[in-house]
Amino acid sequence: MSHLLHFAEHTLQEVALLIMAIVYTTRLIWLMRFKAGKERQANTGKGDTSSRKGIIYSWANIAMPWAMESSRKKFFLYSQFVIFHLGVVAAIGLSFIIPYAPQLLGSQVLVAVLQVIIGAACLIGAYRIIRRIASNYMRAISSPDDYFSLVLLTVWFFFAFWSVPNNTSGGETILLIYFFMTAFFLIYVPFSKISHYLYYPFTRYYLGKTLGKRGVYPVRRYSEEARS
Amino acid sequence: MNSTRSHKAQKVLERMGKKLNRQIVGSFAACVHCGMCTDSCHYVLANPGDPTYAPAYKADKIRKLFKRHFDWTGRVIPWWVNAKSVYTDEELEELKDTVFGKCTNCRRCSINCPMGVDFATFNRMARGLLVSVGIMPEGVAVVSKDQWEIGNQMGVLKEDYIDTLEWLSEELVDEFGDPRAAIPIDKKNADIVYSINPREVKYDPRTISDAAKIFYLAGANWTMPSEGWDMTNFGLFSGDDDLGGAVARRLYEKVEELGGKKLVISECGHGYRSTRCEGQNWAQYDLNFEMESSVTTMLRYIHEGRIKVDKSSNTDPVTFHDSCNNARSCGLTEEPRELLNLVAEEFREMYPNRAENFCCTGGGGAMSMSEYTPRRLKSAKIKADQLAATGAKYVVTSCHNCVDGLSDLIKHYKLGMKVTQLVNLVAEALVVPEKETAVPVEEIPAAAAGPLDGYKILVVDDEPDFVSFASAILEDHGASVVNAFNGNEALEVARRESPDLITLDITMPGKDGKQVFESMRKDPQLKAIPVCIITGQPELRKLIYDRSVPPPNGYIDKPISEESLMRNVRKILEIKQKATK
Amino acid sequence: MPDELHVNGTSLRLLKADITDIEVDSFVFYAREDLSLGSGYGNAITMRGGPSVQEDLKEFGERKVTEAVITGAGNMKAKHIIHAVGPKFQEEDLPEKLRTTIINALKLADEKGITQISFPAMGAGFYGVPLEESAEITLSTIMEYLKNGSKIQEVIISLLDTREYIPFQKKLNSIQKS
Question: In this complex, do B113 and A70 lie within 8 Å of one another by their Cβ atoms?
């Protein structure tokens, strides 16, 4: 292994992670400095729910594709979302496995699993780029950051896919690109839309708290069979 | 700050900084532009191909200000995240068109956002920012000022409100032959203080008397307050938290002054949400009494056996429309269905329903914004399809805005349905004990023979059949009737005959009823003559809300029935007579 | 807390009432530049006063912010209405303009020999002046005007509800203590 690759796998990643942690902490302090609204009213609804239930339901919402009409009716989009985000987890995980537990990649099964997930995420990324450009609805709501973040992740997936075997016999270029991209990704994320997962627990917490108190969450489902 | 920014733009940005809270900041920061919300909005579905209605697109019109001024990336590299400031009053006007004219704050996109972005909440905030610098649709200004200064959204003066309640009381006492059937006003220590929507006093008094019948037959210890009776709250629509707090406080303080034990809120979605929930937060007011929707009250009376109902009185198939504020912001979805099943023989769900129901298209103050009426009716196609699919004859809703919004779209899309409320169906289904039926309902016309004796009424309509029909009813009840078949003739006959009341169709060829009405209101000789509009056309809303001239004294939707015509005509004439006594 | 004080022999008192429904020599209507009565108190004037008020206003055309005109009050309990065009919605130099508007209304009343005048919570509510600011400006401006001598015998501040009343009462109390 070259010095450069060693640096990319270790020092660079550690510095990038440190920067990300500092920026994220600052970001959370910034968010928490805004006051939280107070709700004085007694609960509404049938009485079988509460803020607490609403919060749990709201957090779990993402894993319940049947819960929202938008994910229920667009199951293809929802499936893409799941695979794409699993791809992110896998590709990030890879950046820890290679430097700290490379022996795990001796398992052909793990290599195959990671490659299938990351490869599928890469293809979905490509599809998402096309969708964002081709749909006038998506174009109308897209900023340069939206396009860049998507392209960044898709290209990163591409190099992660080829980095999974952790094989330098054919040269280090792919691994170098993957690790430099990972470091860039970690530093860029807090400043881009990709930081949405940082806010996710908060936005869903507050929506769940309100709608739980109001008896709206969990959403009461009606029987579709009743239609026929 | 940029010195080229207009004063109003500057004030909007300054106030935005004060209004931001953690929930709103989270909603601003968390959107990933995934587009999952797009199809959840009825405006989008009814305007295919137009992305300017997409919730995320509309949200970005506000979000760009947040990003430019409060979010770090946007402050450093604004173009990268589409962050942009606002500089001119024209830009604020454009924002007005989006936040008032392209969204009813129904919250359907909020519950369909994977990230939990509550667009409706910050859209309301943006409305409030614009209102604070005087930028708002004219109807919003008219209604807000009425609620600030007169105490209710429709500018009903205290004496008119009291006269109406007293007139209704006389009717109720006559009907039941019992003085206890009267509506108690400002009774101390009542179990129930009943608050209503001013639309009920002004244009739909039947909902008040139906509620009064239910309270009377249930033997309720109830009252209606002489002030602080308007449970609606335009602050919810205009985004003005101060107005929201002021209106709610008037209600709460009145209940406490009367020593009331429970505030019951008549069927109105935004009124229920504002009074039951948001009002306490806006007013920063903690209550020592309970509140509930009249739907819950009626259901409890049936369960407790205090009133008896017979569902065979309502045989037509009915469907139920969930108001957005009841269903998506207050969880009031099951009680109305339970009640409906007790008072109507055939209830058919519409789909989707409950929290997933589509907006009536009249919410968020849309009924008062006449400049957006064509947009509103176009977007109502989604609701119209939903209604038509049920095959029901009646659509029942627990919201006055929904009543108006649905009535307009039913006529626009020629669905041939009628809109009603649970209180009307419950009153219809009431089983009145023998001793309390002093005057059987069928005998009312006979008992009230000649109630219009001595009154001269001008009936204006371009349809001769309608003129004959209405004239025959009015003459049967003792009125002398004169007719006119177009606008110019109406003005001529009105000047010549000086009638006591004019019933006016507003969709006539040539000089239409709206112009005729405005001419009458501006004419020194005619301006004092009460006018009852007979129509169903959405143009009516402009007369009610924008009010370049004083609004009509009543209106009736076509097709009319003898009962609705007589009730409205008598209310206007007899209350006017009371007032002049 | 007190609801009344005297300045130079003139009574200045607070009243919880609808300004368009009290028996008073004159009251101030916070008017628009085009002098159309519009909704809110304007609606109450139209309904309670009848058509004559808007008719009377025709002769004045439009007026600039801070100016005031006087009309009859038709069938209302009041005799006169002073239509004072006040500043609105956070407009520039609002406090100064509000002071001038109040002074102009008082001057007009003096010119017309009116001895009793009622003010609402000037600019508060729909036009967005915070109640504390409205109380401060309304009361201090009136006091200052009365100190310089006036034939007005009674100034009544008509406040719609307790929400409006309390800040004015607090301000009046602090003035009295100082």
Answer: yes
Domain coverage including residue A161: 3-30+67-198
CA distance C8 to chain B (A): 32
CA–CA dist B157, B93 (Å, integer): 33
With CB atoms and an 8 Å threshold, state whether B352 touches A69. yes
Task: Count how many domains chain A has.
Answer: 1
Question: For chain C, how long is the longest CA-to-CA vector?
Answer: 46
Is residue C134 less than 8 Å (CB to CB) from chain B? no
Q: Do B299 and B154 fall within a single domain?
A: yes
Same domain, B160 and B284: yes
Instruction: Look at A203 and B30 and tell me if their CB atoms are within 8 Å.
Output: yes
- Considering the domain architecture, whether residues B237 and B325 belong to the same structural domain is answered as no
Is residue B475 a part of any domain in this protein? yes
- Whether B148 and C163 lie within 8 Å, measured CB to CB: no
- C44–B253 CB contact, under 8 Å: no
- Interface contacts A/B by beta carbons within 8 Å: 187
Distance from CA of B531 to the nearest CA of C (A): 15
- Asked, for residue A150, whether it belongs to a domain, the answer is yes
Scanning A123-152 for CB atoms below 8 A from B yields 135-146, 148
Model pLDDT for residues B412-455, shown as the tens digit of each residue: 999 999 999 999 999 999 999 876 554 544 444 444 457 888 89
Can you give the residue range of the structural domain that contains B199?
149-303
pLDDT band at A225 (very low <50, low <70, confident <90, very high): very low
Chain centroid offset of residue A95 CA: 16
The Cα-based distances of A98 to A103, A113, A185 in angstroms read 8, 15, 17
Residue (of A168, A145, A175, A129) closest to A8 by Cα position:
A175
Does residue A112 lie within any of the structural domains?
yes
Count: domains in chain B: 4
List the single residue in C44, C51, C88 with the smallest CB-CB distance to B157. Answer: C44
Question: Neighbouring chains of B at 3+ CB pairs within 8 Å?
Answer: A, C
Structural domains of chain C, with CATH: 4-177 (3.40.220.10)
| Judgement on whether residues B26 and B82 belong to the same structural domain of the protein | yes
The interface pTM score, or ipTM, of the predicted complex is 0.97
pLDDT tens digits for range B57-107:
999 999 999 999 999 899 999 999 999 999 999 999 999 999 999 999 999
Selected residues 12-41 of chain B with any CB under 8 Å from a CB in chain A: 20-27, 29-40
Strands B554-557 and C4-7: unpaired
SS3 annotation, B11-52: HHHHHHHHHCCHHHHHHHHHCCCCCCCHHHCHHHHHCCCCHH
* Cβ neighbours of C55 in B, within 8 Å: 524
The pLDDT > 70 percentage for chain B reads 96
User: Does A145 reside within a domain?
Assistant: yes
Six token digits for residue B291: 């509140």
Chain segment B275-330, per-residue pLDDT in tens: 999 999 999 999 999 999 999 999 999 999 999 999 999 999 999 999 999 999 99
Residue B299 shares a structural domain with residue B320 = no
- The C-alpha atoms of residue B141 and residue B238 are separated, in whole angstroms, by 9
First vs last C-alpha separation in chain A: 66
B295 and B153 belong to one structural domain: yes
- The domain that holds B539 is classified in CATH as 3.40.50.2300
B chain contacts of residue A201, beta-carbon cutoff 8 Å: none
Preceding amide of B352 cis, omega within 30? yes
Whether chains B and C touch (3+ CB pairs under 8 A) is answered by: yes
**Which of B403, B429, B455 is the C-terminal boundary of a domain?**
B429
Asked whether residue A203 is assigned to any structural domain, the reply reads no
Biggest distance spanned by C-alpha atoms of chain B = 79
Of B136, B167, B195, the one marking the end of a domain is: B136
- On chain B, the residues whose CB falls within 8 A of the CB of C119 are none
Alpha carbon distance, N-terminus to C-terminus of chain B: 62
